[in-house]
Amino acid sequence: MAFESTDLRSTLPSAAAAPATPERFSGSEHVQFRDVPPVEKTETISTWYARGQNFVVGYSDLDGTAALSRTSQPDEYVVLLADDDLEARVEAPGEELTVSGRTMIVVPPGDSTVTITGRGRVLRLLTTKSEDIAALAANAGSYAEAHENIPPFQPWPDPVGGFRVRTYDLTVAPLANPPFRLYRCTTFMVNFIDPKQGPRDPAKLSPHKHDDFEQCSIVLAGEYVHHLRWPWTTNKANWREDEHYTVVAPSVTVIPPPSLHTSEAVGAGTNHLIDVFCPPRFDFSDMEGWVFNAADYPAPEAR
C-alpha cells in the first residue's frame, strides 16, 4: 500500500496485512460504452451494460422520461441519479416516493418501477443473480468461467426495519481525507466521490491492492489512466504485463485482486470517477463514521 500519512486509508487493517500471494490471476476488464452500441435504446434513453464477477452496471443517458421496471427481483439493487436535473418516482409494493437531484436509491427485492424524468446520467447496480441483465453485459463472455481469487458472493444482513425503498443524498459533505462519500446496502457499497478539475498530481497517486474482491471504477466524466501491476510468482507462466490503460467517459473498469492499482485523472477539464464494490467492503465498514448509512445496514458479525 502507498498512502500519504495524512490519508486515513493508511490506517486500514488491510494496509498492514500481508496474506499469501495466490499463484494464478485474472485480468482486468475495461468497457468504454461509446465504443459499443447501446443494448437498449428508445427515443428518450440509451443503455449499456458491463459486469464483474458478482455485479452488473447499467449506464443510461436520459433525455425525457423512462420507466425502469423489475419483476421478481431476487435481491436489493441500486439506482444512482448522477445529475441534478433528474427526478425519480419509485414504486414498490405498499410504497411510492419521489426524489430529485444526485441521489442513491436502494430498491427492495420483488416488483418495482423507477420512473425517471429529466436529462442526465442514470446508473443501475444489480448482482449477477439478475441473470437477464448479466447476459446483456458487453463483456459477459469474459465471465463464462469464474475469475480467480474472488469468494462466492454473500449478501450482507437484512436492513434494520426490513426491506423498503431507501434514498441517500449524494451531495452531503464527504469525509475530509480521503474525500469519500460511502453508502452500502445488502448487495453493494458505493463511493460517490466528487468531480475534480484537471489532472491528478502524479506525485500523489495511491497504489494499493485488494486480496479477495474486485473494484469497479466507473468514469462518469473526463479521462483516466488505470495503472495495474500483478505479483510475480515462482511460475513465470502466470506473470502478467503491467497495464496502463486509458479510458474516457463513460466507462467501466473492473480491477481484479490482488493487482496493485491506482487511477490517474489526466483530462484537462472535469474528471469524475466513482467506485462500486459487491458485496460491501469490510475494511471501509470497520472504520468508525466512514459509511454514512451504517445505522440502516448492519455489517456481518462473522468474517
TrEMBL record:
Chain spans, region Disordered: 1-30
Domain of life: Bacteria
Alphabetized InterPro entries for the sequence: RmlC-like_jellyroll, RmlC_Cupin_sf
Ranges of biased composition (kind: Low complexity): 10-22
Annotated protein name in UniProt: 5-deoxy-glucuronate isomerase
